[in-house]
Amino acid sequence: MAQANSQNAQKKTITDKFIEFSLNYIPDSMVFVLGLTVFVFVLALIFTDSTPWGLVEDYAKGFWELLSFSMQMCLMMISGFVIANAKPIRKGIVRLIDWPKTRGGTIALFALITGVISWLHWGVGLMATIIMGKEIAIRKRGQGFHYAFIVAMAYTSMNIMANGISQAAPLLSATPGNFMEKIMGGIVPISQTSLSPYMMTFLVLELLALPVVYYLLMPKKEKAVEISDELYKEFTAEPEKVDASKKLTPAERWERSRVLNTLIALLILIWFGDHVITEGVSKINLNTINFALFGLGLLFHDSPHSYIESVKEGATTVYGVIIQFPLYAGIFGLITFSGLADEITELFISIATPGTYPWIVFIYTGIMDFFVPSAGSKFVIEAPYLVPAAQHLGVPVSQVINAYGTGAQMANLIQPFWAIAYLAAFRLRFQEILPFTFMLWLFVFIAGSLWFLIFPFGW
Predict the structure, then answer these.
(1) Above 80 in pLDDT, residue 16?
(2) Nearest Cα residue to 386 out of 399, 372, 369, 376
(3) Of 415, 424, 445, 429, whose CA–CA distance to 331 is shortest?
(4) 189 φ, ψ (degrees, to nearest 5)
(5) Which of 74, 127, 362, 414 could bridge 80 with an S-S bond, Cβ 3.0-4.6 Å?
(6) Contact predicate 66/328, CB 8 Å
(7) What pTM does this model have?
(8) In whole angstroms, how far apart are CA 77 and each of 93, 115, 133, 212, 362?
(9) Are 426 and 384 in contact (CB under 8 A)?
(10) Cα–chain-centroid distance for residue 390?
(11) What is the DSSP string of 36-68?
(12) Where are the transmembrane segments (predicted)?
């Protein structure tokens, strides 16, 4: 018996050992953010002139900084869920999931489709990966898909490919009149950042590599722990149906009528189309995207009743955002208002050369985003010293933006902040997906490092 146990222990893969370690020692995301708060507080005490009470003031000042952003994220997540949960969209997703007959084929299809969607817009990609991930867990049950691996695949696919045209920093830098225009010496067109041949090539290579990496990381069929019976029943429960023979009241007829949904949806979408045509793509922001998603959600649902029921279901994915965003905003306050961000940045810039600066920005962002995982709002604070440093070293500003965005996406792979929606939707803990997301973090770290060190000035 002892010999058999020894042999079983020897058969454990690195991933198996990582899963075991993660389940035993990595806390829940709520514990993670509270622990990070203490850690950053201590760092600020050591490396800045702030007093303990001054840091408390900084924390309180930052605590409410992300309220608008929190609401925007909640609306985006719920609206995206509502769209993906609509009957015509879900039928399309089901057909796609049913098409491949093998595990490898399913992984390849999932990675490529969700990767492209996430590149177009990370918010839609976030909900698309959740919906498709759930359908794989449900419809491929019995084929050996490890449930936590599916969730990790969904989370990493969105994050790795989200460094696309919806990234805040490139869009902001390409907008005339932005706060950095004078320092940059003009705007930086999106053709030099997200849509540049340099970044497009890198992202295409990442996209093509994802199915291979996922396949190598996928637990063997005999070791897979599939979706539980409890979750399977919950996710496949049929919504309550209205008795067709029942005579509806006037109020119930309006609740189940398509008229109002379609009318409001068309008004919203016509406005959005006119806005894009007259103002240009550069004017698209979270508010206009949320407006369009709201309209699409109404259009794809056949009644107000169907829409609101879907909203109720989608709302279960945002409870973590509501509670944890203020806590991360407090960390944001500690780092920003205490001067800790300046101290860390100066440390990296002091060892930079023109050939290593983009890579240093890539690494720096990966570190800072781990503590303040909001690349858009963080760029407003960091750009005023990252950009002048690049200009001093003779590095194109576009390369700073490219390295900045790539580093931010890398950090998210081992940071539970953006995983909150996935953990809520799939009913998992962060430590259950971390072994897989860590390996993807390692992949992006190596790929990004090679890319920015070999081609530091772009093409």
Answers:
(1) no
(2) 399
(3) 415
(4) -60, 150
(5) 127
(6) yes
(7) 0.74
(8) 18, 17, 15, 29, 27
(9) no
(10) 28
(11) HHHHHHHHHHHHSS--HHHHHHHHHHHHTTTHH
(12) 30-51, 106-132, 144-162, 198-217, 259-278, 321-341, 347-372, 433-454
3-state helix vs strand vs coil in the chain, percent to 5: 75, 0, 25
Token pair belonging to 412: 């998210």
Distance of alpha carbon 36 from alpha carbon 373, whole angstroms: 12
Under 8 Å between Cβ of 160 and 208:
no
User: What six digits make up the tokens of 435?
Assistant: 């072994």
Q: Closest Cα to residue 416, out of 317, 301, 320?
A: 320
Tell me the pLDDT tens digit for each residue of 46-104. Answer: 999 999 999 999 999 988 877 877 787 788 778 877 887 788 887 887 788 888 989 99
Give helix 430-454 / helix 397-412 axis angle, nearest 10°.
Answer: 160
Side chain identity at residue 285, one-letter code: N
- Token duo for residue 201: 């090539």
Contact by Cβ (8 Å): 341, 335: yes
Using alpha carbons, select from 336, 433, 437 the residue that is nearest to residue 382.
336
Dmax (CA) for the chain in angstroms is 76
Among 359, 353, 342, CA closest to 410 = 359
The ranges assigned to domains in the chain are 47-233+254-454
Q: Give the helix/strand (H/E) hosting 252.
A: helix 250-255
pLDDT of residue 215: 94
Amino acid at 225: V
Cα–Cα separations (whole angstroms), residue 270 to 76, 81, 264, 312: 19, 22, 10, 27
Which range of 126-135, 137-146, 313-322, 331-340 scores highest in mean pLDDT? It is 137-146
C-alpha gyration radius of the chain = 23
- Would residue 178 be called left, alpha or beta, if left means φ above 0 and alpha means ψ between -120 and 50 degrees? beta
